[in-house]
Amino acid sequence: MPYFPTGTKSLLSKCLTPKIWEQCKDRRDKHGFTFRQAIMSGSKYVESGVGVYAGSHDSYYAFAPFFDKIIEAYHGHKPNDKHISSMDYNALKCPPFPPDEDKMINSTRIRVARNLAAFPLGTCVTRDERNQIESLVVSALNEFEGELKGKYYSLAKMTEAEKKQLINDHFLFKGGDKYLQSAGLEREWPANRGIFHNDAKTFLVWVNEEDQLRIISMQKGADILAVFTRLSIAAGEIEKVAKFAHDEHLGYITSCPTNLGTAMRASVHIKLPKLMKNKTKFDAIADEYYVQIRGIHGEHTETDDGVFDISNRRRLGRSEKQLVQDMIDGVKALIEAEKAEQ
Ligand code: ADP
Ligand code: DAR
Q1: Model pLDDT, residue 301
Q2: How far is residue 3's CA from residue 215's CA, in Å, rounded to a whole number?
Q3: Catalytic residue among 129, 256, 262, 338
Q4: What pLDDT sits at residue 174?
Q5: Among 36, 235, 251, 293, which residue's beta carbon has the most beta carbons within 10 A?
Q6: pLDDT profile of the chain (342 residues), mean per 10
Q7: Considering only CA atoms, which of 182, 80, 42 is closest in space to residue 123?
Q8: For this structure, is 313 an active site residue?
Q9: Using CA atoms, how far apart are residues 120 and 47, in angstroms rounded to an integer?
Q10: Is 72 a catalytic residue?
């Protein structure tokens, strides 16, 4: 059984009881992915927040005594709970922000993670399967016309000029994440990884990073409805070609259990300089509206200039439409609080 030093806070260390270890330690899922592989990341990096990755859709059921506890602890989602997906942007209540509030919001981004039903997850795919996934997804992306029309940049084959431009655009994901490496998600890096973006740079797809697809819609300003509409249409078009791994209990299936369900993070970059000075109130509103406060340079970054990344905190048990609404309602409450601060 892995050893966790005193003070380890990961969900892995909290959920892996001796009884569950005895139940699961020699199990494999139907692709041969072992339970020991699933817990490798958090066993090696005890500072992990969660520390667990699935090898396939089947992992969540083959290792159920363990994953049921992880999923209930993180999402509050019980083994018999259902998840209803909905990317229905027509049902969104999002009237335009008035001018004084609109100017507080620098940009909007909504992303979902998706994996293909016909393959295991990135933690377990073979090099050939990863190649098939890239070919299938890129064939769907190259069919896009109109606003979504764009170009795929293979990480292994892009020119230095293309790499420089993608880095300048903050589009380029980089390898070298120790958590992903320890989970087997960076094997044969950078082979069959890449980035697609449309000509307007408002629609982006990461291929074969932490998940097989990260579908991203983003633009300057506060038009959240336009961003969600673009994402919903694009995801629907891709799925016509490549079915996504999904079920009625866990929703969309992802490598990391924290992203199960919608695998959606809907965020705005918003100026809240006064609220920054009242952390108690800032955190209280975030808790009340189930929104997460991040820095603007990605997961685990901080803010010091008063611009924050505000996004939905929940992933599983509510639909994509409901989570975008969570973010909108939270942002409105934070704007009111910012205005009320002296
Ligand atoms: P994730 O990709 O899991 O949603 P990150 O917080 O790592 O989470 O964001 C990835 C990248 O997207 C970062 O470079 C971040 O700056 C950028 N980003 C996230 N939200 C926005 C936003 N609303 N506007 C502009 N860029 C954003
Ligand atoms: N480092 C892992 C990731 C947790 C959630 N973030 C993801 N999936 N990008 C951890 O367990 O801390």
Answers
A1: 72
A2: 37
A3: 256
A4: 78
A5: 251
A6: 96 98 98 98 97 98 98 97 95 92 97 98 98 97 95 94 88 89 97 96 97 97 97 94 96 97 97 95 97 85 86 96 96 97 86
A7: 182
A8: no
A9: 27
A10: no
CA 211, 215, 219 angle in degrees (round to 5)? 140
Alpha-carbon dihedral of residues 65, 66, 68, 72, nearest 10 degrees? 140
Residue 171: predicted pLDDT: 85
Which of 108, 109, 174, 254 has most ligand 1 atoms within 8 Å of its beta carbon, as the pocket-test mutant?
109
Neighbours of 167 (CB within 10 A): 11
Ligand 1, residues 267, 292, 297, 302: which to mutate, most atoms within 8 A of Cβ? 267
pLDDT attached to residue 167:
86
Residue pair 185/53 in contact by the 8 Å Cβ criterion: yes
In this prediction, residue 303 carries a pLDDT of 77
Query: Under a CB-based contact definition with an 8 Å cutoff, are residues 55 and 29 in contact?
Result: yes
- CB atoms near residue 19 (< 10 Å): 9
Distance from residue 268's CA to the centre of ligand 1 (Å): 9
- Compute the distance from residue 294 Cα to the ligand 1 centre, in Å: 9
C-alpha of residue 139 to centroid of ligand 1, in Å: 26
10 Å CB burial of residue 159 (0-12, 13-18, 19+) is exposed
**CB under 6 Å to ligand 1: residues?**
107-109, 111, 170, 218, 265, 267-269, 294, 296-299, 309
pTM: 0.94
Ligand 2 atom index nearest CA of 10: 11
Q: Catalytic annotation on 280?
A: no
